[in-house]
Amino acid sequence: MGAAHIHLDPLGGLAGDMFLGAVLDAWPELAEATFAAMRAAGLPEDWQVRHLEHRDGVLSGSRVAIDPPAAGEHAPSGMYVEIRERIANAPLEPGVRARALAILGLLAEAEARVHGRPIEQVHFHELADWDSIADVVGAAFVIEALRASWSTAPLPIGRGRIATSHGALPVQAPAAALLLQGFAVIDDGIEGERVTPTGAAILQHLDAAPGLPPGPWRLTTSGTGFGTKRLPGMSNALRVLAYEQAQAGRIDEQVAIVSFEVDDQNPEELALGLEALRALDGVLDVIQLAAIGKKGRLAAHLQVLARPERLDAVIDACFAETTTLGLRWRLEARAALARASLTVAGPAGEVAVKVATRPGGVRTAKAEIDHVAAGPGGQAARARRRQDAEAQALREIDDGEADDERS
Length: 407
Known about the structure:
By secondary structure, the chain is an alpha+beta fold. Helices cover 34% and strands 29% of the residues.
């Protein structure tokens, strides 16, 4: 099960149920656990949830149907803070809970901006029923289970107006339009809502790249998920295509990349938080870039490179050390040089040196600048200490290999 990379092909569009239908069509073995996660988040037992085979006369695939009882079922309030609390307290795996809260948070932030109100006052009319909440939790579960990187083809933008509790609104719905900023779209001439706010939030959470990344790739499986609407002359379907890296591409290891933005944290506090992240076991690097966030605010774009087996701990640390309310992560292949770390004696104390073996057997050395800077003198003195430490490290490795050969 699983894939290194999954590509979305939104022929008919993208909605929560279409996303689940496509993924479970490709990986039906996930269905039972996905539905169990929905129940854990509160989906009542008298709501029926099914994974159904579906054919529209052109394509075949599957649908996820979440149906209410005949009458009398009390629906959730639709208030963001109440739905957030329900998911936060649900007996879900930590990674699933974090993803569900992140997707929900993206929806809430978009709704808050659309209606010009604080996020705590957001009321979801579209999420004011169990099936929509189940879509969010189900999507979080399958994304966490697959742990792949994602990309998407251009999205159909749709046309016309949709009826909502706020009256007639243009397509794209305003919240979806905010969430789809930066994604490529096409106008295929077919009217109606093609990407729902929930579908757009899922896509934003996936941090989906525009198109399949450079390969070579090997296609391993595919799945097709259908929506409930009928489109004229076209299947209302979303297709997922799963790939593994072909052997022509060098893969030494996998790394997890966690990315998010912060625009409301004091720079001094953020610097302390990033130092704590850098010191965390399993973190390979932390990168900070300047970005422009919502409302034209100057923000920090942060990227944490980590060992995949430490991903959950790194995600928890990102939430603990920064003010972010949501983040994105993906697994990527990494090519890495063989390297060794050793400590050599210098005139001002010990110096840590990292030695890498490059193609053709050439070795390069890099001394730890903090150790080099510990001695007296200015730039020229530091440069000499650095060169001496690096040369000594290379000699020690060569001497060690010579001893091994003699023995």
